[in-house]
């Protein structure tokens, strides 16, 4: 059992470097299954989700070398094997094995995905796409079998009933080796989708329109090896920018793509946050007299649901009243009760978060209920007077690379303790 202990109230300053995007790499690694030769991924974050994916790939027969932030993956030894249990059940992103295994073998037996409990996150859109391309689905307990019956997947026109990053990527993975053309309408537009499409195109796929709401894939017979740089993690970047605005005395966040954070930064500017935006970095000044704002999450390029929780402690420093409406995940309010334990004037009402500020937070024993809630509690603990203990930190380690080391480099008094 691990916990994070923070002695808060210390001003932070310095520089931090953002790692490669978690939400990209958890799809990029399964995508390598489709290659007929070695693929090297650079900028891979040091997070537990990556560790789990490596274990799964090696169990399937892949040869993987890891040197610092690079992964060299040789998928030629991979065998199609059932993966109903084990690490596959701890990952939400395990569903990307459906698309990649279907695309390579025409068959996949994979346990149902896990990850953070954020309310209903059905995979019906994924199944709709697979079935449109000729796969049949059967359930056996807690795992799913998808099969084409020995036939090749066939391209199809697929309309996504709701915008879904996971379903869009999974459809691309299944379609790149399918016979003919696949058209995805109402596709998600997130940068991570562009990243996956870029990798696949560099491997020889024919994908057009990634980053728009219509994606066209022309199936190919073979995908070769390549080398690919993972894009910077916009959620990690936003988390550190929010932290810097909440308690920093001058922090520079490097390896940031501003165009991936426009809606987030626009909200910070509405609050009155002073920062300097450069080509690949953001410098956040020490803040005073911030204004309360209201936020409503929406699919990209709107305000990201994954940044709703990390910005909440910063909102508690602002003057006035505000609210947060998360239109993506109904359960993304579990951090509210934990922040209230730290003397935050914050609550939920009719599936909305309402808050009043400014607040002086106080250290407390709190629990991370999911990945981004954990990030919010880390920021709150750094802001608070006294000591904060955070349990369930495995959620945090799933998505924030070297977080303890990075925060210590800024001057934080923070420890990861294993009991």
From TrEMBL:
<keyword id="KW-0133">Cell shape</keyword>
<keyword id="KW-0808">Transferase</keyword>
<feature type="binding site">
    <location>
        <begin position="121"/>
        <end position="125"/>
    </location>
    <ligand>
        <name>UDP-N-acetyl-alpha-D-glucosamine</name>
    </ligand>
</feature>
<dbReference type="GO" id="GO:0008760">
    <property type="term" value="F:UDP-N-acetylglucosamine 1-carboxyvinyltransferase activity"/>
</dbReference>
<dbReference type="InterPro" id="IPR050068">
    <property type="entry name" value="MurA_subfamily"/>
</dbReference>
<dbReference type="GO" id="GO:0051301">
    <property type="term" value="P:cell division"/>
</dbReference>
<comment type="similarity">
    <text>Belongs to the EPSP synthase family. MurA subfamily.</text>
</comment>
<keyword id="KW-0961">Cell wall biogenesis/degradation</keyword>
<dbReference type="GO" id="GO:0071555">
    <property type="term" value="P:cell wall organization"/>
</dbReference>
<keyword id="KW-0963">Cytoplasm</keyword>
<dbReference type="InterPro" id="IPR036968">
    <property type="entry name" value="Enolpyruvate_Tfrase_sf"/>
</dbReference>
<feature type="domain" description="Enolpyruvate transferase">
    <location>
        <begin position="7"/>
        <end position="407"/>
    </location>
</feature>
<protein>
    <recommendedName>
        <fullName>UDP-N-acetylglucosamine 1-carboxyvinyltransferase</fullName>
        <ecNumber>2.5.1.7</ecNumber>
    </recommendedName>
</protein>
<feature type="binding site">
    <location>
        <position position="92"/>
    </location>
    <ligand>
        <name>UDP-N-acetyl-alpha-D-glucosamine</name>
    </ligand>
</feature>
<dbReference type="GO" id="GO:0005737">
    <property type="term" value="C:cytoplasm"/>
</dbReference>
<feature type="binding site">
    <location>
        <begin position="22"/>
        <end position="23"/>
    </location>
    <ligand>
        <name>phosphoenolpyruvate</name>
    </ligand>
</feature>
<feature type="modified residue" description="2-(S-cysteinyl)pyruvic acid O-phosphothioketal">
    <location>
        <position position="116"/>
    </location>
</feature>
<keyword id="KW-0131">Cell cycle</keyword>
<comment type="pathway">
    <text>Cell wall biogenesis; peptidoglycan biosynthesis.</text>
</comment>
<keyword id="KW-0132">Cell division</keyword>
<dbReference type="GO" id="GO:0009252">
    <property type="term" value="P:peptidoglycan biosynthetic process"/>
</dbReference>
<dbReference type="GO" id="GO:0008360">
    <property type="term" value="P:regulation of cell shape"/>
</dbReference>
<feature type="active site" description="Proton donor">
    <location>
        <position position="116"/>
    </location>
</feature>
<keyword id="KW-0670">Pyruvate</keyword>
<feature type="binding site">
    <location>
        <position position="328"/>
    </location>
    <ligand>
        <name>UDP-N-acetyl-alpha-D-glucosamine</name>
    </ligand>
</feature>
<dbReference type="InterPro" id="IPR013792">
    <property type="entry name" value="RNA3'P_cycl/enolpyr_Trfase_a/b"/>
</dbReference>
<feature type="binding site">
    <location>
        <position position="306"/>
    </location>
    <ligand>
        <name>UDP-N-acetyl-alpha-D-glucosamine</name>
    </ligand>
</feature>
<dbReference type="GO" id="GO:0019277">
    <property type="term" value="P:UDP-N-acetylgalactosamine biosynthetic process"/>
</dbReference>
<keyword id="KW-0573">Peptidoglycan synthesis</keyword>
<comment type="function">
    <text>Cell wall formation. Adds enolpyruvyl to UDP-N-acetylglucosamine.</text>
</comment>
<dbReference type="Pfam" id="PF00275">
    <property type="entry name" value="EPSP_synthase"/>
</dbReference>
<dbReference type="InterPro" id="IPR005750">
    <property type="entry name" value="UDP_GlcNAc_COvinyl_MurA"/>
</dbReference>
<dbReference type="InterPro" id="IPR001986">
    <property type="entry name" value="Enolpyruvate_Tfrase_dom"/>
</dbReference>
């Amino acid at each position: 059992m691990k916990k994070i202990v923070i002695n808060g109230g210390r001003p932070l300053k310095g520089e931090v470097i953002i790692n490669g995007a978690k939400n990209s790499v958890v799809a990029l690694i399964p995508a390598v299954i489709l290659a007929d030769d070695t693929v090297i991924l650079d900028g891979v974050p040091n997070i537990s989700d990556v560790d789990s994916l490596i274990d799964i790939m090696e169990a399937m027969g892949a040869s993987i070398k890891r040197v610092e932030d690079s992964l060299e993956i040789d998928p030629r030894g991979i065998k199609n094997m059932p993966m109903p249990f084990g690490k596959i059940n701890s990952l939400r992103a395990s569903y990307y094995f459906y698309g990649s295994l279907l695309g390579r073998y025409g068959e996949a037996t994979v346990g149902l995905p896990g990850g953070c409990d954020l309310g209903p996150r059905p995979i019906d859109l994924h199944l709709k796409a697979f079935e449109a391309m000729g796969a049949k689905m059967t359930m056996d307990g807690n795992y799913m079998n998808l099969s084409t019956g020995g036939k090749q997947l066939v391209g199809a026109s697929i309309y996504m009933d709701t915008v879904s990053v996971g379903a869009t990527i999974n459809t691309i993975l299944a379609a790149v080796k399918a016979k003919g053309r696949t058209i995805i309408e109402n596709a998600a537009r997130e940068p991570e989708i562009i990243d996956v499409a870029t990798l696949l195109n560099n491997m020889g796929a024919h994908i057009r329109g990634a980053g728009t709401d219509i994606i066209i894939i022309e199936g190919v017979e073979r995908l070769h090896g390549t080398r690919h740089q993972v894009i910077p993690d916009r959620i990690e970047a936003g988390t550190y920018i929010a932290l810097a605005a909440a308690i920093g005395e001058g922090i520079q966040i490097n390896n940031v793509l501003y165009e991936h954070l426009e809606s987030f930064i626009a909200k910070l500017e509405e609050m009155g946050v002073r920062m300097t935006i450069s080509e690949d970095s953001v410098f956040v000044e020490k803040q005073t007299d911030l204004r309360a704002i209201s936020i409503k999450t929406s699919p990209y390029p709107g305000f990201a649901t994954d940044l709703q929780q990390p910005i909440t402690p910063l909102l508690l420093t602002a003057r006035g009243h505000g609210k947060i409406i998360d239109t993506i995940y109904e359960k993304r309010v579990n951090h509210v009760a934990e922040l209230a334990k730290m003397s935050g004037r914050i609550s939920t009402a009719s599936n909305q978060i309402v808050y009043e500020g400014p607040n002086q937070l106080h250290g407390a024993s709190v629990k991370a209920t999911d990945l981004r809630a954990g990030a919010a509690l880390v920021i709150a603990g750094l802001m608070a007077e006294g000591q904060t203990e955070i349990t369930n930190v495995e959620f945090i380690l799933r998505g924030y690379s070297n977080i303890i080391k990075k925060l210590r480099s800024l001057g934080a008094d923070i420890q990861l303790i294993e009991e």
